[in-house]
Amino acid sequence: MSKTSNSSAILESVSDAIVDVTERVSRSVVRVGAGRWRGGTGTVWTKDGHIVTSNHVIGDMREVEVGFSDGSKQVAKVVGRDPYSDLAVLKVDSDNLTPVETGNSDSLKVGQFVLAVANPFGRQPSATSGIVTNPTFSTRRWWGGGGLDKVLVTDARLNPGYSGGPLVDARGRMVGINAAYANNRGISIPVNTVKTVVDKLLHDGKIKRAYMGITAETIRIPENLASQTAGLIIYGVDQDSAAKKAGVAIGDVIVKLDGKPVETLADLRGLLDDTAIGKQAKLSVLRGEKLTELTVTPTEAEQD
What we know:
Layout: H1 3-26, E1 29-33, E2 39-44, E3 50-54, H2 55-58, E4 63-67, E5 73-82, E6 87-91, E7 113-118, E8 126-139, E9 148-154, E10 166-168, E11 174-182, E12 185-190, H3 191-204, E13 210-211, E14 214-220, E15 230-237, H4 242-246, E16 253-257, E17 260-261, H5 265-271, E18 281-287, E19 290-296, E20 299-300
Antiparallel strand pairs: 1-2, 1-4, 2-3, 3-6, 4-5, 5-6, 7-8, 7-10, 8-9, 9-12, 10-11, 11-12, 13-20, 14-15, 15-16, 16-17, 16-18, 18-19
């Protein structure tokens, strides 16, 4: 066999493998319609009718239309949503859906091949491909939450209507839920995050998070002031918030919460989970050049 023929055979084999993965995954992909001008994709999560999509796809809708590749349609109820992670769970009356196979997003590597699958028109599914460019990136702004921790970034193009669809690896295992396309990069919610959020939404209908009531951003700290190189400088404190009651002031720099270092908003959000609600915690802040200890009792964050 000539070198050209051998190369063609390899390419054909790769092409066939991509087609096979796309066809298998597309059985777990549906259209989600939330009004005349709004819609996206949904990913079948369970055989008995639970479907995961992006929260921004459904907005404030309580019921949406779901379209399947065979042309059939059903009304789905919104059983839970989390604006912070941009995820929502729908439920249709069915016991014979094909759930997506899930993988492990923690094991993703830069350069790994991925496919983004969608069904924005409720007919033939579509797909794009790419590679992982950053498996643990944190965004600064996001729908309803101000930021997202450890999103998955790829160079797979996410066309209009791709939000809510699965991002899968070369074996067809879902590694993320597609959420947005910005700066020529696809942004997806890692599947391990999806699993945690969906489990809580199915159990409670919402995600409980602690709330302090501050606006802050990372700032560098001189070495002689603290044992860490950065902290969160406060430039806004909400009225009647936990932070206000604790005595937090604009210009303070948060360096620790209950003894745990806080250098970024992601660090702070990671500590303000449901276990922190109503629980007193020691907040260490730099006020001027002096380390000050405050006591804060985070409240439960309101749902958007």
